[in-house]
């Protein structure tokens, strides 16, 4: 045994491999395969097997390997079909857009003051922010900001975000017409690879760019242009950037999963089959219930029932009523049935003419009784797939405080993450283009900005373009409890430190823009002071 142990240690060190295999290797096959943990020289162990791992632990358990090739047009059509036909799909998508965009997000200019100061650029940041925010607010609320002249920025954002989530993506084109920045939205279905007659446009162009699903890009993946199918079946090439390098056309994605995806995917792409099957189940169940409701009761016979009408039998004495035995006479059984129905009619009540030994039984279906639970379970799965709590999607808040708070906190985090994505994808390029035109027109003073654009100094450019978009948030379930809990965690030393800001409270309460509210309040307060009608206001004390 000592010799065997020594040989094993030598094998671990990759010494005398041939001797080890000759003496002991034959017996090692009797043991189960084992991995030598901590031995990084894999070739030295006698029971170490090298196999490729593809995700399966047992052969065939993971099913066939499928490399999905995305069919963007069909996915887009099916998603719009689901939104049109399915109440669940429409509810989930509408509620998602409602909370993410709400009435539109508000611009908060936030230039990197310290970075600009380090570059030798000093200016009145507060004055700059007030001018930028006020001019942007006025422009964004005008119909003139839209290419069609029918929408403002808020409605354009809602439309773009909603269509992107349903259809996969939306193309945004920024144009400068008559001194005004205008926003054009183009359905992603119109972004297609060009074709000439029966021959499709080459995927690789002479300049080295590639065209994938209507998107022209460099070998690095940078979007250069978009090819648009117009109403007259001709194609228009829209460049992604202006000569100054600013983005003037870009895609807003509903969802993008893999790096190689050139286009966006619908938010509910993973749920399309589930939604379709659930709708068929709902229609079948509702149809069954509808037909079943038309039959209130059923007659159940026991083994002694003859199936005859007892009332008609009692009224039947002979073969024929009337005794003339003419062809005009009816059989007694038929006359008995007519008489039985007449008797029932005289009482103004219905009769079921039940045979002896039978009973009435209400129709019911186990499928219909289990419909709510089954439907709700699948609806929860769909909500989970798109990352929205079911109680938020369907506005059902009957859980406990802890459960409701956990759900709303999770949803609030989702809102924050998505709004950052919306800001980056949709609002930021619009602001960058609008800001540049305002600086060129000398409506906004931004020292060093134009020089930075000429020199491609992206640090200075980015410092001026730094913004964030705000909007209403999900209200607290019980704000007093949550504030008290936070105060308890902070301790007495931070008892008087504000836990929020005016802007944040304005967002939560959805009461407009904080700067506008403060300005309006200041004007009203000045007016009240002039009229000398200042009321005595007691400090706010939260209820115990």
Topology (elements, then pairings):
Blueprint: H1 2-12, H2 17-28, H3 72-85, H4 87-101, E1 106-109, H5 113-118, H6 125-140, H7 153-167, E2 169-177, E3 180-187, E4 195-196, E5 199-200, E6 210-212, E7 215-217, E8 223-229, E9 235-239, E10 249-253, H8 272-293, E11 297-301, H9 310-314, H10 332-346, E12 358-362, H11 366-369, H12 371-385, H13 390-393, H14 401-440, H15 449-455, H16 458-465, E13 467-470, H17 479-490, H18 502-509, H19 514-531
Antiparallel strand pairs: 1-13, 2-3, 2-10, 4-5, 6-7, 7-8, 8-9, 11-12
Short description:
The protein is of the alpha+beta class and 544 residues long. It is built from 19 helices and 13 strands.
Structure description:
The chain has 19 helices and 13 strands. The longest helix has 40 residues, at 401-440. Among the domains are: 1-66, no CATH class; 296-362, no CATH class; 487-544, no CATH class. It is globular. Helix 3 packs across helix 4 and helix 8 packs antiparallel against helix 12. The strands form five sheets. The chain has a four-stranded antiparallel sheet with strand order 6-7-8-9, with no helix packed on it. It has 544 residues and is an alpha+beta fold.
Q: Uncertain regions: pLDDT < 50 for 5+ in a row?
A: 22-40, 317-321
Summarize the amount of helix as a percent range: 40-55%
The profile of the biggest β sheet is:
4 strands, antiparallel
Overall pLDDT metric: 79
What is the distance, rounded to the nearest whole angstrom, between the alpha carbons of the first and last residues? 79 Å
């Amino acid at each position: 045994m000592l010799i065997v142990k020594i040989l094993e240690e030598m094998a671990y060190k990759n010494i005398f491999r041939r001797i080890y295999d000759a003496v002991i290797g034959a017996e090692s096959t009797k043991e189960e395969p084992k991995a030598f943990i901590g031995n990084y020289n894999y070739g030295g162990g006698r029971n170490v097997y090298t196999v490729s791992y593809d995700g399966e632990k047992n052969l065939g358990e993971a099913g066939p390997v499928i490399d999905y090739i995305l069919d963007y047009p069909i996915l887009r059509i099916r998603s719009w079909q689901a939104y049109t036909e399915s109440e669940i799909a429409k509810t989930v998508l509408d509620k998602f857009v409602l909370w993410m965009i709400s009435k539109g997000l508000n611009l908060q200019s936030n230039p990197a003051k310290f970075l600009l100061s380090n570059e030798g650029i000093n200016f009145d940041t507060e004055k700059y922010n007030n001018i930028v925010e006020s001019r942007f607010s006025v422009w964004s609320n005008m119909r003139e900001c839209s290419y069609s002249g029918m929408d403002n920025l808020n409605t354009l954002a809602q439309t773009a975000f909603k269509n992107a989530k349903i259809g996969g993506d939306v193309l945004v084109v920024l144009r400068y017409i008559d001194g005004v920045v205008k926003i054009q939205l183009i359905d992603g279905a119109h972004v297609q690879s060009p074709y000439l007659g029966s021959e499709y446009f080459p995927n690789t162009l002479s300049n080295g760019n590639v065209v994938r699903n209507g998107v022209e890009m460099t070998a690095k993946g940078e979007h250069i242009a978009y090819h648009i199918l117009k109403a007259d079946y001709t194609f228009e090439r829209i460049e992604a950037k202006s000569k100054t390098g600013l983005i003037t056309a870009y895609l807003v994605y509903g969802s993008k999963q893999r790096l190689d995806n050139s286009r966006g995917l619908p938010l509910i792409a993973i749920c399309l089959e589930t939604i379709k099957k659930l709708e068929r189940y709902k229609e079948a169940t509702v149809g069954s219930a509808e037909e079943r409701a038309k039959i209130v009761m059923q007659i159940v016979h026991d083994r002694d029932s003859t199936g005859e009408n007892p009332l008609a039998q009692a009224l039947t004495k002979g073969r024929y009523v009337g005794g003339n035995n003419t062809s005009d006479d009816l059989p007694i059984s038929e006359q008995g049935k007519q008489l039985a129905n007449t008797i029932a009619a005289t009482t103004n009540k219905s009769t079921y003419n039940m045979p002896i030994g039978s009973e009435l039984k209400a129709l019911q279906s186990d499928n219909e009784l289990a419909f709510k639970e089954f439907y709700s379970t699948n609806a929860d799965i769909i909500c989970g797939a798109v990352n929205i709590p079911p109680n938020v999607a369907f506005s059902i808040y009957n859980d406990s405080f802890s459960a409701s708070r956990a759900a709303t906190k999770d949803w609030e985090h989702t809102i924050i993450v998505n709004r950052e994505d919306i800001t980056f994808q949709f609002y930021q390029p619009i602001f960058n283009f609008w800001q540049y035109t305002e600086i060129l027109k000398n409506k906004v003073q931004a020292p060093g900005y134009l020089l930075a654009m000429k020199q491609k100094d992206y640090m200075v450019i980015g410092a001026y373009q730094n913004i964030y978009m705000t909007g209403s948030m999900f209200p607290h379930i019980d704000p007093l409890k949550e504030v008290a809990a936070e105060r308890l965690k902070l301790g007495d030393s931070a008892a008087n430190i504000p836990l929020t800001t005016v802007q944040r409270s304005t967002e939560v309460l959805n009461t407009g823009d904080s700067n506008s509210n403060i300005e309006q309040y200041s004007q009203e307060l000045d007016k009240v002071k002039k009229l000398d009608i200042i009321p005595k206001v007691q400090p706010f004390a939260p209820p115990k």
